[in-house]
Amino acid sequence: MLSLYIKGISNCFKIPELRKKLLFTIAIIAVYRVGCYVPTPGIDGVALSEYFRRITETTGGGVFSIMNMFSGGALAKLTLFSLGVMPYISSSIIMQLLTAVIPALEKLSKEGQAGYQKINQYTRYGTLALSLIQSYFIALWLQSPQAFQGLQVVSKPGIGFCMTTMITLTCGSILLMWLGEQIQAQGIGNGMSLIITAGILSNAPTAMHTLMLMLNPKTPGAAQIQPLTLLMMIVFLILVILGITMITQGQRRIPVQYARRMVGNQMTQGQNSFIPLKVDTSGVIAIIFAQSLILFPATLASFIPSQTFQNIAHVIHRGAGWYYVIFAFLIIFFCYFYTAIVFNPVEISENMKKHGGFVPGVRPGQNTADYLDFVMTRITLAGAIFICVIAVMPEMIMASFKVPYLVASFFGGTGVLICVGVMLDFMKQVESHLQMHHYEGFMKTGHIRGRR
What's domain 21-202's architecture? Predict the structure, then answer.
């Protein structure tokens, strides 16, 4: 298996077009990682690191540990890319919702490439607005001595620092959005997803170092774990990756038969085909959207000294019962919401009817649309429940194995789900390029087949 992957990687660089795309993608990710170390002017990095160390020891990091994971560690350093891609993700959520409820935007979304570019432009404007708002509250938060337990994080607070922070973080967010679009246009893979994955994986060395310290019995003040516990965690990780792969690639294949029909002066033979209905249509989008929304109240509570926001954040903080209930509801909602946007059973039924296709045992037209909607509803629920279980795994691992969140997030949870999903999509695109040029890829038997 290892030799197969090594051969597949070597084949990637034998195709000039694919080699150019891969090197371009790697270069963009390298630029992103460099930007994660460009500091924001006026910040005392030592005091900020001390603050994050304190909250990590007392509360496990809370909302900041999750936000820091998505920003690739940039938030803990308050660097150029501290906002990460979250403003763009939030803007995309808003545009998706508005497209579903505003007829003008819905009509625009059906105008093909021109409509897509227009909606994408609106998304960029939304990203700019959200970045300005978030960076403003971050600047206020940094200047508050009460928020940092007496630590002086800002050397010269005032309107000048506020404006500088807003400009720096907003420009970083817009630059990151542009880098993701460049990967989409000239590289390979989904740009935003690859940037998120690179940010998550950048925390892996720190997590491994923490794990090694916990394995060493001579480490003072560190909670210890046994080698057998580590082995159990590795086995658990392998099972989680296998489960995510099977759900991500799993399909329910709906058989379709095409009747004979006249084309010109010839009678064409009937054909058998199928409609592949994915178990997890939304992929990593649903969990990213849900994570963004559930972090919003806690983010506001951190930046705004309001008792109302504090109470709301306390009710749905990570570890509370309502947190998991609302998080699971948001994941299921976005799974169905995204599926409803990309999957239109009425349109599929009409196209099948035009070309003489039908599902065996189901009448064409509305009956076929209802059948497809019924099947998709059931398999989407199964996929959404699986994602909910994966999303709460870090808390289960923390409670069972007594490890910090940074370590637990690499053995299950949002990070693993995003990384596996993005890498599968990335490998699928690379595989298609290799097969197009008649090169052997990473898999001998092709993609994982779903239920027939």
Answer: Orthogonal Bundle (1.10)
Cross-sheet strand order for the sheet of 251-258: 271-278, 251-258, 357-358
pTM strictly above 0.90: no
Cβ distance 207 to 394 under 8 Å? no
Domain ranges within the chain, ordered by starting residue: 21-202
151: amino acid identity, one letter: L
- Bridge-based pairing of strands 251-258 and 261-263 is unpaired
Q: Give the residue among 43, 248, 47 at the shortest CA–CA distance from 155.
A: 43
Q: CA angle, 377 as apex, 387 and 374 as ends, to 5°?
A: 160
DSSP type of residue 269: P
Residue range 416-431, pLDDT digits in tens: 888 888 888 888 888 8
Segment 172-208, tens digit of pLDDT: 999 999 999 899 888 888 888 888 888 888 888 888 8
Among residues 79, 107, 307, the alpha carbon closest in space to that of 173 is found at 79
Tokens in use for 134? 């978030």
Q: What is the pLDDT of residue 28?
A: 93
